[in-house]
Queue: 2 jobs
Job 1
Amino acid sequence: MIRRLLAGLLVGLLLVPFAAQALTLTLTLEGSATQGGLMVGRAAPGATITLNGQPVAVTRAGDFVLGFGRDAKPTATLVLRHPDGRTEKRVIGIKARSYKIQRIDGLPKRKVEPKKRDMTRIVAERDLFRAVRARLTPQSWFRSGFVWPVTGRISGVYGSQRILNGKPRSPHLGTDIAAPTGTNVVAAADGVVALAHDGMFFTGKTIHIDHGLGLGTVYAHLSALGVKQGARVKKGQLIGRIGQTGRATGPHLHWGLTLGALRLDPALAAGPMPGR
């Protein structure tokens, strides 16, 4: 009896390291593998990740985010290196989209064709935005999920080619939601207010919320700011009110989603608008 028990114990001890070596530490991914899409993932703590050869920021807990631009190629290659040195490779198929052409007339000429004296201000504000988008806070506030900051008529969609006052301009990289001036605007997800500007040349009163790992949301053309820079906010918290400041023909919210310098589609992150 004793010999059988000892033999069983020995077999059990021999199996433990073998079983540990056989474990496969996989990653999880959820979200939109499409042009303009955002994906949220989790890997083993201590893992490192690259996407198309570029390093991806990862929190200590293993959370990370991936983004695919307006004109992303059909596939992206993700490589995960586990803490023990093993690697996993995953090829992600990216769904292509077709984009609309949107013509907007009636804008003040100066907002479409700025004067030379406006350029110093425009360049300074562009640099400010770039600095805010370059923040890499090692937090995963984006895990709260995303909601629509306001509901209303969608007056502009992500990716559409813009023709302003008859002049071709860059694609629209956000979602526009028309609503009456003064309508409440809420934070789309948990985060920290990285920018609360009282009046930019193009975007007027503007808020940018940092959701961690370089992921942020932008709220532009506001009539009033309801939060200050540096404030911690929760998903659904009031942050401002709809307006028509900056380059706008009517009261609406321009809502953007950014991952570093990459512009993504916030409507994909939040899903269908409630009630529509």
Job 2
Amino acid sequence: MSCQNCDDRGYLTGFDPAGYEVVSSFCTCQKGQEVKKQVWDSKMEKANIFRHYFNYELQGIQENTVNAKTNYFVSTMKQYSIDLSHHKSKGTSYVITGPTNTGKTLLSSLVLKEALKKNYTAYYMLWSDILDKKFDDDEVMEKVKTSDFLVIDDLGIDNVNKESRYPAVTLENIIKTRYGNLLPTFVVSRLSYSELVLRFSMLTTYIPTTNVITL
């Protein structure tokens, strides 16, 4: 049986101030919810967020009462998402370090999801991909440098010669541009903070140590 509200299109229309017909909302019918999910999934894909995280919600992540560091991380990310507009205006950035399977990628990606919900632009990028040929792609470069919120994951995990200045110069080029334009950046790594600073000393210039989370 077809939906009388949307004629099975899945969305309702209205008119903008100029008199043009526009989509005003998704219908509450089954078709409408399917279309809504398709549109949302497309938005997440364009932000390069792992599909595995599509159905997670930041406020639904439970704090671990045993691990104080995990509790602090979860509560900080939740509060950050609540105050998202404030942090966007201030360009509040974080460095997040710790072993694998501690939720670094998940929670930082869910902050991006919250940003998308509030119609900000967001993008997730692996450090190795930034150093790879993908960085030569003008569209990717534009997203890395201009998205309202950016996650750079696995910083320092690459095959570049440790004596090379290329990684440090590349990161500084990105971070300095984003810092100057008040664009929040989440730098995520399996390396310790001290190891990161040895390779990327500019982190201490652009992200205060008060915004370093160690798991």
